[in-house]
Design a protein that fits this description.
The complex is a heterodimer of chains A (about 400) and B (about 210). With about 400 residues, chain A is of the alpha/beta class. Helix content of chain A is about 30%, strand content about 15%. The chains are: A alpha/beta (about 400), B alpha/beta (about 210).
Chain lengths: ~400, ~210
Amino acid sequence: MQENNSVGIVAPQTAHFAAPLTLKSGAVLPQFDLVYETYGTLNANKSNAVLICHALSGTHHVAGKYSEEDKYPGWWDNLIGPNKPLDTNKFFVIGVNNLGGCHGSTGAASINPATAQPWGSQFPILTVEDWVTSQTLLADYLGIQQLAAVVGGSLGGMQALQWTIAYPERVRHALVIASAPNLTAQNMAFNEVARQAIITDPEFHGGDYYAHGVVPRRGLRIARMLGHITYLSDDAMGAKFGRKLKDTIKYSFDAEFEMESYLRYQGDKFAGEFDANTYLRMTRALDYFDPALEYSSDLSVALKKVTAQFLVVSFTSDWRFSPARSREIVKALLDNERTVSYAEVTAAHGHDAFLMPDPHYHAILRSYLKNIQVHNIQPNNIQVGSAT
Amino acid sequence: MSSTKQELGQEFRHDFAIIASWLPFGAKVLDLGCGDGALLQYLKASLEVRGYGVEKDDANWLACMSSGINVIQMDLEAGLSGFEDQSFDTVILSQTLQAVHNTEGIVREMLRVGREVIVTFPNFGYWRNRQQILTGNMPVSKSLPHQWFNTPNVHLCTINDFDQFCENGNITVKERLVLTDNKPVTFMPNLMGNLAMYRLENTQQK
């Protein structure tokens, strides 16, 4: 059955960019594709577009289903649709698969035009800055000069923040959810363990496993299992699994506890559908993101040119992107007298809470998004900041 | 009848008008424990203040957001570490003082963050409160609406108490106004006054 507030049946589209893109690392992508989906209708003066930036394993398929039979909708379907908090009757919503992704946008598994072989290990390392640059090219392609909002959770929130820093004139609102202005050493350490699991898998072949007809499934599986532990809180895992056994203790290393079965299931599922080279690059982009670095690590200085209005949201039980990290963003915005609201949602689910349909969390997003003006906007008339 | 009253369609609040009279036009204001944002809305409409509210309650947070007030969700008891020294023209604590635990710490934090501080609170020394205590009960009134067993108030004080607190703490009282039923009280304010309003600054600043 079709929910009556679903965006319904959707289809991805591909935008091809023929011009070379110079990346932050100095590497050049000669050409690339971005796969994206849109929901709702772009208004006449193109002032109602909202970009959704995805996190580590997200995709462009944010809402709706591909067919009536489709078992699961897009990954943020609970948020987006007619009369949902991000209301597609009002907004034109864009989901995009990040460059380097493995769901249709150009990535390591794509063919390198120079060699007619998969890019593999030769695919460049991308940064949050590069993603945002490529997203502005997609906005150009769609004829959108200025986004009404950029919305993202976790790594997606970093992209939303980067939009406001690098392209202040192109975004009016940023919704930065369960995110951080950079990763802590502990957070990066989890990424390093995940990457080591992949890189030391004998079937990784230095990243050129496509040519060998194999994938580093074991490594990817362990990386994902580790990730899942960090996305949940101790309490949430306790509530979900506790010490529950599937059967009786068998004095073996099989998945005897329900928690083990869950992790193995999640790991296997992920290893069967995600590209290891993408996983490596996504985690590296997380590690490298640090917009304050070139301003003596002073985030307030880094955000000086920001003009967008902000909603920052964190979750009390999120220890991977803790409320304290969101408060750093809020403080830097306050130091610059920017328009910002901050909500700290009491939630048990840890980092995963940002994807859950918690009523209060959704009420927060709904009330903020409701206040966003989409009419009578002059795209080039930016009021705040030092520029004229 | 003020035009702001008509615009907002709300009951006229004399204490809001007094707070507004203590602020310059376009002031940068931090309202601690801002509730549903009514004061900031009033100050925005009347003085175009650049305002932020601080509120911990979820329902109040949503009410602020719906009114277009910038609202930061945090617990005052943890201090104001997210705010730089002297970064606001005025920091306001409107009828919240009596409900905070770390009263002295919060007033100090307000004086650190704001060039000026406004504190208002229900005067426990008001004769109607004294009368109820004399008859043997904890006061319950329009300004102290809770019963003793469900009140959020933990640090009720009188005008005399607060005057002493400021004197001992090297806090200069720039102005003090006392109201009862929206009208100023000058005769025996600690007995006759229901709502106390203070305009404070650091003494050592001068």
